Amino acid sequence: MNKQFPIISFLFIACLFVASCIDDDEPKDRTKDIIMSVSEEPGIMYDLFDSEREHPMMCMRVMDEDFPGEWRNLSMEAIEGFNYEPGHMYTLKVRRTILANPPADASAYTYKLLVVLEDRIWPEPKPDDNKIVVTREEDIPYADKCPYHIYDIYKDAFVVDSKGKMHYANYGEGSTAFDFSIAAVRLEHTIENTSPDFSDFNRIDMMAYYAYVLSPLTDKIEKVYLTRAALYLKDVISQELFDEIVNEYESGKTLEYGLVIANFRGYGLQKVKFSITKE
Q1: Which of 24, 41, 91, 106 is 20 to 30 Å apart from 272, CA to CA?
Q2: Which of 89, 87, 86, 57 minimizes the C-alpha distance to 73?
Q3: Distances (CA, A) of 31 to 86, 90, 112, 195
Q4: Is 129 strand, coil or helix?
Q5: Are 262 and 209 in contact (CB under 8 A)?
Q6: CA 142, 196, 72: angle at the middle one, nearest 5?
Q7: pLDDT per residue over 144-192, tens digit each?
Q8: Helices (H), the chain
Q9: Whether the bond into 141 is cis, omega within 30 of 0
Q10: d(CA 59, CA 69)
Q11: How many CB atoms lie within 10 A of CB 20?
Q12: Residues near 171 by Cβ (< 8 Å), separated by ≥ 6?
């Protein structure tokens, strides 16, 4: 009779028990469904690495049971499945996860939308409220103290070759070409934080959110959303027009566009220009 069998079995069970205890001691993510309020008024936040606070970004302001009575800033993409629109007051049910091992350069909290419990415009519009109607440039209202030089364009002139590849104007040999789908007019905040005007123009109502597009080809004025202070050309120029530029325009022909940069309420901040030239 093998008397070692009970001893071996006991040791095996003991090892399993110890391993189970070790696993239970490992930190785990904690998940909970909570109610969150989202303010109708967006906020301003800065990237973790923007220590000089030179590049303000529009964000959401939220309040929940984790931080009662405190409005906090969350990035526009912080709640998975939720698209925020300024001017709307929301009540959301979200699944909040507190990460056991969060990335060093990110928050320990993540959020996923479960359901929108309330979505209403605030303040609620009155029946006699007049919405901004723009049919010509003169119709565009400007915010207080504007037009003002708040932004510069990173590159304001594009060229496109006969293959549909794009460059910035005056590019050098070896310069990398890019596709029309990713070409964008990118804005840079120009007011230094040491400027006496910085506090006046570093507010949410002085941040670029829309652009009124003044096209050389039509009198119709389109209002286009910006994406992280960038206006993608594909939102301004149709694929049909781009193909026409590539295939039919003569070398040197240029289209010059005007953009009236506007805040989230649709009030103008300043006017800028950019051009596209057939190479």
Answers
A1: 41
A2: 57
A3: 28, 22, 11, 45
A4: coil
A5: yes
A6: 75
A7: 999 999 999 988 899 999 899 999 988 888 888 899 988 999 998 888 8
A8: 4-25, 198-201, 239-248
A9: no
A10: 18
A11: 10
A12: 159
Quick one: residue 42, left, alpha or beta (phi over 0 = left, psi -120 to 50 = alpha)? beta
- Other residues' Cβ atoms within 10 Å of the Cβ of residue 141: 12
Full-model pTM:
0.65
Residues with Cβ within 8 Å of 152's Cβ and at least 6 positions away in sequence, in order, are 187, 188, 190
Q: What is the 3-state secondary structure (H, E, C) of 92-127?
A: EEEEEEECCCCCCCCCCEEEEEEEEEEEEECCCCCC
Structural tokens at position 135: 């049919």
Q: Are the C-beta atoms of 176 and 226 separated by less than 8 Å?
A: no
Across the range 60-87, mean pLDDT stands at 90
- CA dist 216 and 241 (Å) reads 12
